[in-house]
Design brief:
- The structure is a homodimer.
- By secondary structure, chain A is an alpha/beta fold.
- Chain A has a single domain, classed as 3-Layer(aba) Sandwich (Rossmann fold).
- In chain A, about 45% of the residues lie in helices and about 15% in strands.
- Chain A has eight helices and seven strands.
- The first copy, chain A, has a seven-stranded parallel β-sheet, sandwiched between helices.
- In chain A, helix 1 (about 1-35) runs parallel beside helix 4 (about 100-110).
- The radius of gyration of chain A is 18 Å and the shape is globular.
- The N and C termini of chain A lie far apart (about 55 Å).
- Chains A and B meet through helix 1 and helix 5 of A and helix 1 and helix 5 of B.
Chain lengths: ~230, ~230
């Protein structure tokens, strides 16, 4: 029985992914047309995705026009937190869904006024595994890890590290209180993705955010330059 | 297209779950026959599942005969850590699988000498969502949260909290360094699962482990009493 299930299952999963990829391309084209730099932010529950975005939106105020989509199984707590710093936020409730899909992003974008928006943050559901396989139409994927999770999480989540355009290591303000081998972590990342930038940040104290903001600025410039050509 | 995919997809997922449930019942019967108390330990990446089991195995030495199954996408690091404290450990590599399934548990158990074993820990893949829906044949599910993840994680993961027979809150040694509203966290748990015990622990300092060990002892007594009757 389980063999039968397996052989039936695979083509269905592929069809779901194919349908997702088609929707993702629609989203990607629309964002490119508008010159919006879109970031799919992926991290474990509690890695600090919302805290990072709060700190980032605070810094971008007056300099950029951001929009945010945020996915969670339940509650609108993250959306409410982010709405304090940005007037274009949509909370996506996934129910028991363990990741966002391109169709949800497309639908959420119709609820926003995108005129003048230059950067879109998509905070994925807190999960290091399932979000990786689903293209959302983003320009880049950012893999967010945190010091309190332990230094083995890159090696244990190779698909995210391989797919990431940037690896962020958050909560470096807690370094004095937890055991974390930063060079070991970085070596694990390098084995999987030799050239990916690795930036250390603290969303709480603001340490390291300048380099993250520079990286975002380059992304926005790229997206707007591509639109102009 | 996406509608067509959805209607085709649901019965397949149900068949996978049905096949899993049948295997889980086989595992459950075998464990019950042997009087083994089996715990499915579910928590986010970096919540401290392996550290908790290390501390637990150290305490159980000479008092209990434990066995451990541990699931990860990649690496055998957790298995190696646990094998220092227990001679019956099987590492299950799930590849890109975001949770353990009953068939993996059944197969892993055939690799262990279960004679005299009275407690089985199954450390699930680090993920607060997908493992919840898959019965592994366990007696109980334990939901592990940690202080560094933030106090909103129970409300944001209602399926795990509802399904849990015990909620553990780990890393309480880090309380002075992070913001965490413990009464808010407990209130969120209580809304979802009114009577579930909530125990605060630190796998690092050992604080609170005595109550967790008492809880395990009662589970083992229950499993062995049920076998005797």
């Amino acid at each position: 029985m389980s063999e039968q299930v397996k052989t039936t299952r695979i083509p269905i999963v592929e069809r779901v992914l194919e349908a997702n990829d088609q929707l993702a391309e629609t989203v990607r084209s629309e964002l490119a047309r508008r010159g919006i730099f879109a970031i799919d932010l992926i991290g474990a529950p509690g890695s600090g995705k919302t805290a990072l975005l709060e700190a980032t939106l605070r810094q971008l105020k007056g300099r950029r026009r951001p929009a945010v989509l945020v996915g969670d199984l339940a509650t609108r707590r993250d959306g409410d937190r982010l709405a304090r710093w940005c007037d274009r936020v949509v909370q996506i409730s996934t129910g028991d869904g363990c990741h966002l899909e391109a169709g949800q992003v497309r639908d959420a974008l119709t609820q926003l006024d995108l005129d003048g928006v230059d950067i879109l943050f998509i905070e994925n559901v807190g999960n290091l595994i399932c979000p990786v396989g689903f293209d959302l139409g983003q320009a880049v994927k950012v893999g967010l890890f945190s010091l309190t999770e332990g230094d083995d999480k890159a090696a244990k989540h190779p698909y995210l590290v391989t797919a990431a355009n940037l690896v962020l290591l958050n909560k470096i303000d807690l370094a004095p209180y937890v055991s974390f081998d930063r060079s070991g972590f970085e070596a694990d990342v390098r084995l999987l993705n030799a050239n990916v930038p690795i930036l250390s940040v603290s969303a709480t104290t603001g340490e390291g955010l300048d380099r993250w903001l520079d990286w975002l600025d380059r992304g926005v410039s790229g997206a707007q330059g591509a639109r102009a050509t």
